[in-house]
Amino acid sequence: MNIKEAARKRHAVKKYTGKAIPTDIVSLLNDKIMKINQSADLDLLLVTGKSDGLSNIAKFILSKGVKNYFILAGKESPELDEKLGYHGAELMLYSQMLGLNTWWIGGTYNSKNISKYLKSDEIIAKGIIVVGYGETQGVVHKCKKAEEIATYDGIAPQWFQEGIEFLLYAPTAYNKQDFVVKGNDNKVRLYSESGSFGEIETGIGKYHFEVGAGKENFEWIE
To answer: What is the rounded CA–CA span in Å between residue 81 and residue 84?
Structure first.
């Protein structure tokens, strides 16, 4: 499975079989996390064999069989939320390529339990991503139309159209897809208007847009 196939097939999965992730797959995930942490100055972490990162609501009402999760964390900075969104999306699609399923939890996680895994008080956790083998592959979420979120100055090139296609596969809070995308020549501005989750969703959206458009075809502007 390549990354575009992964983006198309990834859906939120909340119920899991409880099957352990094999050690070789865990090693691949940890290698990926190490590379991201080194390049992006983050503190992402994989916790296996535990469900303590879930709140009681998520654990007993929303989910089933959760045994593993990624912690989304880093030192406070103006860019932290967007970086966590971008590289969290990278982890989700990488996991999908390895045959795993995921569920991004931005609200109903147990911050007290997560804090014990953080290396210092300077590190802040902003959510978790559940990972494992789902009972199902999830369901397709309803998508907005491209023209509802995107404009391009002139005739939109193919790369821009494909960027929007893959952006609409991205997970967002309550599936609102509050993205705004503006293109002009090879310049693209993308942001989310999703309130407190806006910067995280901007990062998620940028990663998905790059998957579709190809990073070599454009550059981001603020």
So the answer is: 5
Rounded to the nearest 5°, which phi and psi values hold at 70? -95, 140
Q: Concatenated DSSP letters for the chain?
A: --HHHHHHH--B--BB--PPPPHHHHHHHHHHHHHHHHHHT---EEEES--TTB-HHIIIII-BS--EEEEEEEE--TTHHHHHHHHHHHHHHHHHHTT-EEEEESSSB-HHHHHTTSSSTTEEEEEEEEEE-BSS---PPP---HHHHEEESSSPPHHHHHHHHHHTTS--GGG---EEEEEETTEEEEEE--GGGHHHHHHHHHHHHHHHH-GGG-EE--
Give the tens place of pLDDT for each residue, 100-132: 999 999 888 999 999 999 989 899 999 999 999
Give dist(CA 111, CA 94) in Å, integer.
25
Q: What angle do CA 173, 4, 141 make, to 5 degrees?
A: 35
Q: Is the dihedral of CA 36, 140, 192, 66 positive or negative?
A: negative
pTM over 0.85: yes
